[in-house]
Write a structure and sequence with these properties.
This protein has three domains: 5-126, no CATH class; 169-295, CBS-domain (Roll); 309-383, Uridine Diphospho-n-acetylenolpyruvylglucosamine Reductase, domain 3 (2-Layer Sandwich). 51% of the residues lie in helices and 14% in strands. The chain has 16 helices and twelve strands. The chain has helices at residues 5-13, 17-26, 29-59, 62-89, 91-108, 110-126, 141-149, 157-168, 174-177, 193-202, 224-227, 238-244, 257-267, 287-295, 325-332, 344-352, and strands spanning 179-180, 187-188, 207-211, 220-223, 250-252, 271-275, 281-286, 309-311, 317-320, 361-364, 367-375, 378-383. The strands form three sheets. Strands 8-9-12-11-10 form a five-stranded antiparallel β-sheet, with helices on one face. Strands 1-7-6-5 form a four-stranded mixed β-sheet. The chain has a three-stranded mixed β-sheet with strand order 2-3-4. The longest helix has 31 residues, at 29-59. The radius of gyration is 34 Å and the shape is elongated.
Length: 384
């Protein structure tokens, strides 16, 4: 009963004889328990009877109490506590050896075991208990996270982070890690063509959304590699841009990261525009954003853990209000809630239920912070 079921299944797949026999016995635990307790109780009662007879012959009726006390002590030490403590510490060594004995013994004593189990199950039915309904042993999402976290040195720390990132793909949505609409950098077709050229050449992004006047009107995106060869041509124009643009790929804001990763792969896309239930653009997400949730940030400077978090020499930490909560939790090992608000700014406004003033200090879920900068009714920068 103490065996690790997942390790047991692994050993069964590797054709381990003891594991195969133990696994088969555990498929019907009522029979196994019936067999073990049948032998256990028979020996205990038999020993008690023998001890009583010997005590009566040696000491008369007064010897019964002596025999009972002495036998209780012997059984507890040598038959119960000591062997079962050892068995709990070495379940495989005992179980695989015992299964070789239990398997033929169960076949030999099956009629007696069947009678015991049938009577026991009938008794349980009187109390509304179904003995055939086994407890659900399938591992849940949070339990699997605990297994990975508590694996110790069996899994290197960097691998743990990746495994936890993979597990979280099914729980998080694209809204949790998107670039919000107010931070989208793209090409405005109302700008001068020379200004657009400079923007393309100087932009650190490989994909640039294309819109007219307002980012709310995104009509596609431009892959820099598709336009680089033509950008210095004399006839480079708006028509060149529009002929190279990729049709917009819209997705709902409640799409899980796992599902979106599959969609990116299936549709051969690398950038998606996120819209809410009313069709309004909320932000964008790239394939790189999803991959970073698994393997960590892609940064040119290894010492730069996050561009939204800057550490000062005096020990203070400056954090952008636009940082998404998942990134903040991952970087600083915090545990801020991300069920409703997705950014630090949103969480502060939700917590205060008002627009704070610059210089306001508060304790946000146990973390003291100071609002350093406000801009357009949003928290722009905070300090820890």
């Amino acid at each position: 009963m103490r065996l690790n079921r997942y390790r047991l299944i692994h050993l069964v797949k590797n054709n381990h004889l003891g594991a195969k026999l133990a696994y088969k016995l555990l498929q019907k635990p009522d029979r196994l328990i019936g067999l073990i307790l049948l032998g256990n109780n028979f020996i205990n009662i038999f020993a008690s009877s023998i001890a009583t007879i010997i005590a009566l012959r040696l000491y008369g009726e007064a010897g019964i109490a002596i025999a009972a006390g002495l036998l209780t002590f012997i059984i507890l030490i040598f038959s119960e506590v000591a062997p079962k403590t050892w068995a709990a510490s070495h379940p495989e060594r005992l179980a695989f050896f015992a299964s070789v004995i239990y398997t033929p013994l169960l076949k030999l004593l099956y009629p007696l075991v069947w009678v015991i189990n049938t009577l026991s199950n009938l008794l349980l039915k009187l109390f509304g208990i179904d003995a055939k309904q086994h407890a659900d042993t399938t591992i849940q999402h949070e339990e699997l996270r605990t297994v990975v976290t508590e694996a110790g040195t069996l899994i290197p720390d960097e691998h743990k982070e990746m495994l936890l990132g993979i597990l979280d793909l099914q729980q998080a949505t694209v809204e949790d890690i998107m670039t919000p609409i107010n931070e989208i950098h793209g090409i405005d077709l109302d700008d001068d063509i020379d200004e657009i050229k400079k923007q393309i050449l100087n932009s650190p992004y490989s994909n640039l959304p294309i819109f007219t006047t307002n980012v709310d009107s995104i009509q596609g995106h431009l892959r820099k590699k598709d336009i680089f060869s033509a950008i210095n041509d004399e006839d480079f124009s708006y028509e060149t841009l529009l002929s190279s643009q990729v049709e917009p790929y819209f997705i709902p804001n409640n799409t899980t990261l796992y599902k979106q990763l599959i969609h990116f792969q299936k549709n051969k896309k690398r950038l998606a525009i996120i819209v809410d239930e009313y069709g309004n653009i909320q932000g964008l997400i790239t394939l790189q954003d999803v991959l970073e949730e698994v393997i960590g940030e892609f940064t040119t400077d290894p010492s730069d853990s996050s561009p939204n978090i800057q550490k000062n020499p005096d020990g203070a930490v400056l954090i952008s209000g636009n940082i998404n909560i998942r990134e903040l939790n991952r970087t600083l090992k915090w545990d801020l809630p991300s069920d409703s608000a997705k950014t630090l700014n949103g969480l502060i406004l939700e917590y205060l239920e008002s627009i704070p003033e610059q210089g306001t200090s508060l304790k946000l879920y146990g973390h003291p912070i100071e609002i350093v900068q406000m801009e357009d009714n949003t928290v722009k920068l905070v300090k820890i």
